[in-house]
Design goal:
By secondary structure, this protein is mainly alpha-helical. The protein contains 14 helices and two strands. It has one domain. Strands 1-2 form a two-stranded antiparallel sheet. It is globular and about 65 Å long. It is found in: Endomembrane system. InterPro entries: Fatty_acid_hydroxylase, Sterol_desaturase/TMEM195. Pfam families: FA_hydroxylase.
């Protein structure tokens, strides 16, 4: 079994390297076919996108926060949280929403303005010749495929899972929990630094467009408002639904990832890892598309741990007995040995199986 898993991991990583290379090869061929003459640059947007640049810049600076707050207010007004946003849930969601706004800017600024100029001093704006479309697809693939692996490994490696379980502890879906993460998981977001590096190399404008588009997709996938349901309901929209649910993350596919149970044919917490693009799950065989929504979310073993334990573990540990975040607890099995022998489906989620 371990050999099969190792072979699958090796195959998936090999495919990933090929995917990473595709935009690079496309840009190289474009450069060769134009005999080294670049007719457009990422510095100058294509004419049909020029009108959108100011809007994207405003969305990047404050628009996304406003969008989250407005959508969250709509969710609350519609009663879509079922009165579960109370106590520790409210604390952890608010702190995880505000803290990255304070933590990440200085970290990224130091990385972009100090670390990169020191590490690669002669490469600033070295990719400024790349056309906008090339930079866009280069960053879209590099950023999101890297996050797919970052996310997948945090589910499949038990030690890493502890830094991601906070995101899955919420017993609901919506804007309130979209930013819910342990601070280490957030600070070490691998794709953030990759995109910052590509921006330093001269792809800042494509990075802006990718970031905004990706943010809307990922926030929409976490929302408790199932905007994709009409695509499944009306037959005339089924062809669009078929493409859409395989290309990007939708509420149905991502809600399944947050289900508190598997084996019911809907919940799929050991897959559906895609953030902006769901196509990674299709390529690597980790996706499940049912067009259905789970009946409940979170983890069956959730102890409603203190906000500081969920956000700042392992610096602060939980005082809740039986918590995976408590002092001295190495792992929390899905079931006891006796239960495992006659384990009925569904299997309840706590700790992921190791790769």
């Amino acid at each position: 079994m371990a050999i099969v898993q190792k072979e699958k991991l090796t195959r998936d990583l090999s495919i990933s390297l090929l995917i990473y290379s595709l935009p690079v090869v496309a840009i190289f061929l474009y450069f060769k076919l134009t005999n080294g003459l670049v007719s457009e640059s990422h510095i100058t947007l294509p004419a049909f996108l020029e009108f959108a640049q100011p809007a994207f810049q405003h969305i990047r600076t404050w628009g996304l926060i406003v969008f989250m707050l407005v959508l969250g207010a709509i969710e609350f007004a519609a009663g879509l949280y079922d009165d579960e946003w109370t106590g520790e849930e409210r604390k952890i969601d608010i702190i995880c929403f505000l803290a990255p706004k304070l933590l990440l800017p200085p970290v990224i600024a130091f990385f972009s303005l100090t670390a990169l100029p020191y590490l690669i001093p002669n490469l600033a704006n070295s990719l400024s010749w790349v056309p906008f479309w090339g930079g866009f697809f280069l960053i879209a693939i590099a950023d999101d495929l890297t996050q797919y692996w970052y996310h997948r490994l945090h589910h499949q490696v038990p030690f890493l899972w502890r830094f991601h379980r906070t995101h899955h502890s919420a017993p609901y879906m919506g804007m309130a929990m979209a930013s819910r993460q342990n601070f280490i998981y957030t600070v070490f977001f691998s794709q953030i630094y990759l995109t910052a590096t590509l921006t330093y190399l001269g792809l800042g404008l494509p990075a802006l467009f990718v970031l905004v588009i990706k943010s809307f997709i990922t926030l929409g996938a976490h929302s408790s408002i199932a905007w994709d349901k009409p695509f499944y309901k009306y037959k005339v929209l089924h062809p669009i639904a078929w493409v859409l649910e395989r290309l990007i993350s939708t509420p149905a596919t991502h809600h399944a990832h947050h289900a508190d149970t598997s084996g019911d044919g809907v919940g799929h917490f050991k897959g559906n890892f895609g953030n902006m693009f769901f196509i990674w799950d299709i390529i690597f065989g980790t996706g499940l598309i049912t067009r259905k929504f789970p009946e409940s979310y979170g983890m069956k073993s959730y102890k409603q741990e203190e906000w500081y334990a969920q956000f700042l573990w392992p610096i602060f540990k939980s005082k809740k007995e039986g918590s995976a975040l408590a002092e001295g607890v190495l792992s929390v099995p899905l079931k006891t040995k006796a239960e495992t022998v006659a384990a009925p489906t569904p299997v309840y989620y706590d700790e992921p199986a190791q790769v």
